[in-house]
TrEMBL record:
Annotated keywords: Glycosidase, Hydrolase, Signal
InterPro entries: DUF5110 (IPR033403), Gal_mutarotase_sf_dom (IPR011013), GH (IPR017853), Glyco_hydro_31_C (IPR048395), Glyco_hydro_31_N_dom (IPR025887), Glyco_hydro_31_TIM (IPR000322), Glyco_hydro_b (IPR013780), Glycosyl_Hydrolase_31 (IPR051816)
Domain Glycoside hydrolase family 31 N-terminal as annotated: residue spans: 47-228
Residue ranges constituting the DUF5110 domain according to the UniProt record: 723-767
Source species: Sphingomonas pseudosanguinis
Gene3D superfamilies found in the cross-reference section: Glycosidases (3.20.20.80), glycosyl hydrolase (family 31) (2.60.40.1760), Golgi alpha-mannosidase II (2.60.40.1180)
UniProt GO BP: carbohydrate metabolic process
EC number, as in UniProt: 3.2.1.177
Protein name (Swiss-Prot/TrEMBL): Alpha-D-xyloside xylohydrolase
Domain Glycoside hydrolase family 31 TIM barrel span(s) in chain numbering: 270-610
Amino acid sequence: MRGKARATVSGRHWRWACAASALLAGFSPLAVSADPIATVDRNGALVSVEPYAPGIVRVTIATDRAESEGKPGYGLIAKSNASGWSHRADATGDVFASPGMTVTVAAQPWPKPPNQMERYFAPSLPPVSISFARPDGEPLTRMNGWEKAPHTVSDEKTFRVGASFSDTPDTHYYGLGQYQDGVLDLRGRTIDCRHDYDRPGGESVCVPFMVTDKGYAILWDNPSATTVSPGLLNATKFASNVGERVSFFVIAGKTTDELYAGYARLTGATPLPPKAAFGLIQSKARYETQGQLTEIADGYRKRGLPLDIMVLDWFYWTRMGQLDIDRTAFPDPAGMNAHLESMGMQSIISIWPRFERESRYFDTLAAKGWLMKDKDGNPVDGLPIRSDRAGALIDSTNPQARAWFWDKIRDNIFAQGFDYAWLDETEPDLVPEGHFFSIGSGDRYRNVYPLLHTSSVAEGSARDRPDKRNLILCRAAYLGTQANGCLFWSSDVQSNWEALRRQVPAGLGMTASGIAYWSSDTGGWQWPNGPEARAPVLVDPAGATAMAPSYRDYPELFVRWFQYNAFTPTLRIHGQRPGTALWDYGTAAEPILANILRLRYALMPYLYALGRQTSQTGAPFMRALFMDFPNDPAVKDLGDEYMFGPAFLVAPVTEQGQTSRRVYLPGGTDWYDWWTDKRYTGGQWIEAAAPIDHIPLFVRAGSIVPMGVQVPSTATAQNLESIRVYPGRDASFTLYDDDGTTNAWRKTGGRSATLHWNDATRQLTANGRLPTGQTLAPLVKIIGR
């Protein structure tokens, strides 16, 4: 009982506990110690109830008290807090109440002797029923069953654990990570929640946080492979492959943003990335020499095209695991990075977690036991699939291995002037099932590797580069990984129209999981290959060198993908093709691409303000429509359009040869066509024009959109060109700026001013000086005047 008093209420055991808990020393993303407000006994099923805020509660169920009162798992860093909560017991059960939620652990009668049928189909667990409601009694959900079935996994006797929640036919479910199945709403589906690079539709990523449109979310606290069936056959079920308890959090909120605030409270805030992260990130698989990389960077400047970051992808090393730079191909990496810096650019370099046997560190890592092992204790080397037979995986679950990895990155790579790390293969690519980490079996900790591996760089950078803002390009996520400064992307997707269509709902599902920074490789990563165009090609491929001549519609695909990614949180060009720069898609494509790129940079004041808001609230700014229009049933399963911040509705074109598309304009507001300023009434479908040089783009009435002057990169101070106001309702928007690169914003809060639009008086005012120091009045442009 860890020294706590225990009392008995109506034959049930419970204990009062202080709400404080401490972070584990030295590693913030690990779990914290937990003290439940009470543990109640339901005929041998021990149910611990642990509040974290008025609208957040953790429930743990086990048959062993140490398990039911154990700490949360990896990625959960919050301290429990029972302030405002009360507990009473009556004939209905144990009731825990706060201003944000009521939790009732239902009373259970003494079990009766089983009848003949029950002797054959005998339940192995005492029943538990827990209801969750708003303070006024309105139901949220109910856990009405739990599972703990014994089995053996990787020679470990353990259990399959799960829980079943009630459902209503009009509940919709979102999140759980990234699934490239082409569908946003999870209802009626079965989600295999595990990281899987080889999922047929594109890589899957498990973030076991599920949001509903009914004012609650469930965070499932188990890192093993988990199956989730939201709203299937009148129930929502979670089942994890390894565990000894059921552990989950329920978050209640009046808005979806309150649910994301709860997620951030539990797992960590999303930091504000360096401003360069919002600009163009130019990459290729791969630049083989220093000259090739600098030639592309110089090409952007010569053409007057903005660019912020150049990326050096894999095989710049002498061997995988050397953690070095091939000086034959890259004779002066420090000079290369200094050249980029002189043009206002920064750099990202790909760093893999794999070590070939012949690499200089393999023997050391193997001797120390810092590599993932097989059942016999030997390092796992390579994959049995994809002809991928080289390299062992560093065991980033070991804190010593993490520290060693960061030290080598710092001394061998960042010392050459590289700014940020791209941590590829963070699934990890060497599949953990049947293998072993320092913390236990890969089956038990199947999904936790992205969190722990990215922590090596996040924590090392914070310690050794405290003044430099961190950024990590990451290929997979878990609970809390967003707090490590990761920018996520959808992995190595195909380069065809179907893959593009799948990106839109996949990205909205990822951001709905509390992962705000997500995008995709513009144009796809795999070698350009697609079926023959069925409609007339809209972009003449003349002069294009990015693909084989037979793929005539690839420049058109790239234009549409670039238009889409210009309205995702980050914009990166990448791919396995001869050329990836803007001028490699032909003379017809280049001016279209240049214009949408310049629009992206013109919107930088808007974008950066959204990033600051996410760091404060935890809410994503690439938003499925259910988040902002909860009362419009037409948007519940709409996965091919979305809000980008409070102003923009984005409707990507994902069909070859398409020059218009149906767009739904949500009800309750009017909308303006960005390109024509035409005003529409919401709550209707329209046929929106989509010529090849335009993405259908609408602005919500009552929006304030700051526009910046053109700059070559975010390293150049950007004045405001205008502040556009779209009348229709009162509005506010907070402008924000800072130095864009350091962590001073954490202490000073940067420079901000809140703009207020009074729709009745048609006046825009500011509560202080604009971050740019400009005068407000000359900048104001009222649309539709």
